[in-house]
Design a protein that fits this description.
The protein is of the alpha/beta class. The protein has two domains: 197 residues, FAD/NAD(P)-binding domain (3-Layer(bba) Sandwich); 264 residues, Polyamine Oxidase, Chain A, domain 2, CATH 3.90.660. Helices cover 35% and strands 18% of the residues. The protein contains 16 helices and 20 strands. The strands form five sheets. Strands 6, 7, 14, 15, 16, 17, 18 and 19 form an eight-stranded mixed sheet that branches. A five-stranded parallel sheet has the order 9-2-1-13-20, covered by helices on one side. Helix 1 runs parallel beside helix 10, helix 1 runs parallel beside helix 16 and helix 2 crosses helix 16. The longest helix has 25 residues. It binds flavin-adenine dinucleotide. Flavin-adenine dinucleotide binds next to helix 1 and helix 16.
């Protein structure tokens, strides 16, 4: 990318990872960049709390595809490890089932064979067959769907030649393909739950989303010593060095537009002008609340339904549970019903699959000696009018979860809780202005949107761009970092086209 000679002024709304990535790339390419962030700290959903000697993640706990992080540092000749050191986690996940079956996922195929042989003679060979198919999906889709952040079926048809399009698994749902290749019900449940990375249902997402296990098995699963929030702090240090100004406690309340152009933002009663505006605020809330678009305009975006929300329960314990790994999944006895309740009926799950993180397994610094802190995350529906859940409902679900965890081996869990912190969808919506408390942007749904998210360039305003989890290629830390990089490329291309 080339140096921008006129030093165009870019304002970025929001200092989540999508905004940070766009800011870094634009600054390196010669733009004058400023970020306005409503919260008092950097990182958006990449968030933390430190209390009573415990460090908890309030957002992401799994780092994948580190190459999409590294590229941001390499763009200015720096080394990511000087800002964000990472370490590999093994096993990747530990999977617990109600009947006592426990299966680890590990990138070492010798370990995988040993683990899957517990499930019967076919499990490992089915796993290898499935991974071969998953790798093919990844290899076809990564250059276009990820790296180029293709925004529409038209872009897709332009990027991929005809024969490649037919290799992309559009033809079944994610679960449909898994169940076609794999016979073992435990392994089916495990691969179905890879959809957790994008907060959708394996029964509604298109088959090509089965590329996700390749992300993990081929490129590893990583942790940041001291807690995942050190990613945000590493980026802050880098942005300070680059001279990117971030205004905290600065909620943007309006984008000022004239016909098909945006000119400025309003923050705390002041107007700030810009040549280009990039919103890391989610697309639909930004159009609705900052640009006051009408229902007709917003109605066109209905297919970009929010992903699920989550109940984020962080508990400090005065003991450690030796049977836990760093990342654990405790499965629903009826996972199909779990997906149906959360994603179709938009109702609270009665027996959810639970994601449970115990970072003290890799990093003793995150809990006092002989103690542990657990982050517990069941997926639950986004805020919806048909089922207007109250705090009592969320507390009831919390109790159901703690009882399930005790039943599945965390004996006397409730007696060992010395600290507790809970985030509900209502908190998540308020903290990050996410659409209806969604935690992974837009849902990936076969019928609604084919797993496309919103485009990075506004169709209405020629100098307004979007970055983050509601924009292609979607949510998750590496994806939103990629999105910011792709937004920068789009801005440079548009500037070139316009002769700037
Ligand atoms: C509980 C949870 C668990 C997750 N687990 C993982 C995981 O393990 N691995 C993974 O890769 N991803 C995970 N994710 C997803 C990941 O966190 C997100 O996809 C990613 O961080 C989103 O980044 P973003 O830039 O799109 O948005 P955000 O992080 O939401 O950033 C948007 C920013 O804009 C600010 N903002 C909004 N409106 C305004 C306004 N009007 N004015 C000023 N500022 C504004 C917000 O305050 C926020 O800081 C998880 C998310 C959650 C919540």
């Amino acid at each position: 990318m080339s140096e921008n000679s006129t030093k165009k002024k870019v304002i970025i709304i929001g200092a989540g990872l999508g905004g940070i990535s766009a800011a870094i790339m634009l600054k390196i390419n010669g733009y004058d960049v400023e970020i306005f962030e409503k919260n008092e700290k950097i990182g958006g959903k990449l968030n933390t709390i430190k209390e009573n000697g415990y460090t908890f993640d309030l957002g992401p706990s799994i780092l994948t595809l580190p190459q999409y992080f590294k590229v941001l540092f390499e763009a200015s000749g720096r080394d990511m490890s000087d800002y964000i050191p990472i370490q590999e986690v093994r096993p990747h996940w530990r999977n617990f089932f109600e009947d006592g079956t426990v299966i680890d996922l590990d990138p070492d195929m010798k370990v995988m064979k040993k683990e899957l042989d517990k499930l019967g003679p076919d499990a490992y060979s089915d796993f290898r067959k499935f991974m071969e198919y998953s790798e093919k999906q990844y290899d076809i889709l990564a250059p276009g769907y990820f790296d180029s952040g293709l925004d529409s079926t038209f872009d897709f048809m332009k990027f991929y030649d005809f024969s490649a399009v037919f290799k992309i698994d559009f033809f079944r749902t994610m679960h449909g393909r898994i169940a076609k290749i794999i016979k073992n019900p435990y392994l089916i449940d495990i691969f179905d739950y890879f959809i957790k990375y994008v907060g959708s249902s394996a029964y509604n997402a298109p088959g090509f989303m089965n590329l996700m296990p390749t992300i993990q098995f081929r490129y590893g699963l990583w942790y940041v010593p001291g807690g995942m929030y050190n990613i945000a702090l590493g980026f802050k240090k880098y942005m300070d060095e680059l001279g990117i100004k971030v205004h905290f406690n600065s909620e943007v309340t309006k984008i000022i537009a004239e016909e098909n152009k945006v000119n400025a933002i309003e923050v705390n009663g002041k107007t700030h002008y810009a040549d280009i505006i990039v919103s890391n605020m989610e697309v639909i809330p930004a159009y609705k609340d900052l640009l006051n678009e009408d229902d007709k305009f917003l109605g066109k975006m209905e297919k970009f339904e929010p992903s699920c929300s989550g109940l984020v329960l962080d508990i400090g314990l005065d003991i450690q549970y030796p049977q836990l790994a760093h990342h654990n999944f405790l499965y629903s006895q009826h996972q199909k019903e779990h997906f149906d309740l959360v994603f179709n009926k938009k109702m609270m799950p009665t027996d959810p699959t639970i994601y449970l993180v115990d970072s003290s397994k890799s990093d003793p610094s995150v809990a006092p000696p002989n103690c542990s802190g657990l982050k517990i995350l069941p997926h639950i529906p986004y805020i919806n009018e048909e089922n207007p859940y109250t705090m009592d409902d969320y507390i009831k679900l919390k109790d159901t979860i703690l009882i399930k965890l005790e039943r599945m081996g965390l004996t006397d869990l409730r007696k060992h809780i010395v600290y507790e912190h809970l985030l509900t969808p209502i908190d998540i919506e308020k903290m990050y202005k996410s659409n209806k408390g969604s935690i992974y942007g837009v849902v990936s749904d076969f019928k609604k949107n084919f797993a496309f998210k919103l485009p990075k360039k506004s169709k209405k305003y020629k100098n307004l761009y979007f970055t983050g989890g509601t924009v292609n290629p979607g949510a998750g830390m590496p994806m939103v970092l990629l999105c910011g990089q792709n937004v920068c490329k789009a801005i440079i291309e548009d500037d070139k086209k316009n002769g700037n």
